[in-house]
């Protein structure tokens, strides 16, 4: 019996009138997160033309990716009801907040500061998620990843990312 007086275990999910025991809460949460991410992606695709496999439109790949993400979410959430897995662990805010902050900072900084500085911010802020960060290694890895990003996105793919701030 749970704290509310419900005789079902806390890891029971009600599907209509049928109760199903969640055997892997981590997988259930992960599957639901993927489904929500998929729905968000579908909502952002909007009116992009889908096209065909031989003549792909701008909405083809995003739609395909969103659909596959949602399908994986359904599979993972479904497996959580059948296969045993780990329970939910406590959320470690000390690690989660710098990662989320780094992503947010990158998104806000890419246009005004450029790819190079925004990427450096991303790696620098994310490094605070670990107490084992070695700053010299961080500088070397960050420089290599920034060069890779510039080479891939700007030089190879020709994406119009500004590299540096415009004053």
Automatic annotation (TrEMBL):
Keyword Disulfide bond part of the UniProt annotation: no
InterPro entries to which the protein is assigned, alphabetical: DUF1468
Q: Which residues cross the membrane?
A: 28-48, 60-82, 102-126, 138-161
Superkingdom per UniProt: Bacteria
Which Pfam families does the protein's record reference? TctB
Q: Does the keyword Membrane apply?
A: yes
The identity of this protein, by name, is Tripartite tricarboxylate transport(TTT) family subunit TctB
Keyword terms of this UniProt record: Membrane, Transmembrane, Transmembrane helix
User: Where do the DUF1468 domain residues begin and end?
Assistant: 29-162
């Amino acid at each position: 019996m749970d704290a509310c007086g419900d005789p079902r275990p806390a890891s029971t999910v009600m599907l209509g009138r049928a109760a199903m025991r969640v055997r892997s809460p981590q997988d259930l949460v992960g599957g639901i997160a993927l489904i929500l991410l998929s729905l968000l992606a579908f909502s952002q695709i909007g009116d992009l033309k889908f096209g065909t496999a031989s003549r792909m439109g701008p909405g083809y790949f995003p739609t395909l990716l969103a659909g596959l993400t949602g399908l994986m979410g359904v599979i993972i959430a479904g497996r959580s009801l059948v296969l045993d897995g780990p329970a939910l662990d406590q959320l470690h805010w000390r690690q989660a907040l710098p990662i989320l902050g780094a992503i947010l900072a990158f998104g806000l900084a890419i246009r005004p500061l450029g790819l190079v500085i925004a990427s450096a911010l991303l790696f620098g802020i994310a490094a605070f998620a670990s107490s084992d960060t070695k700053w010299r290694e961080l500088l070397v890895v960050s420089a290599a990843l920034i060069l890779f990003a510039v080479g891939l996105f700007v030089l190879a793919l020709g994406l119009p990312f500004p590299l540096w701030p415009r004053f």
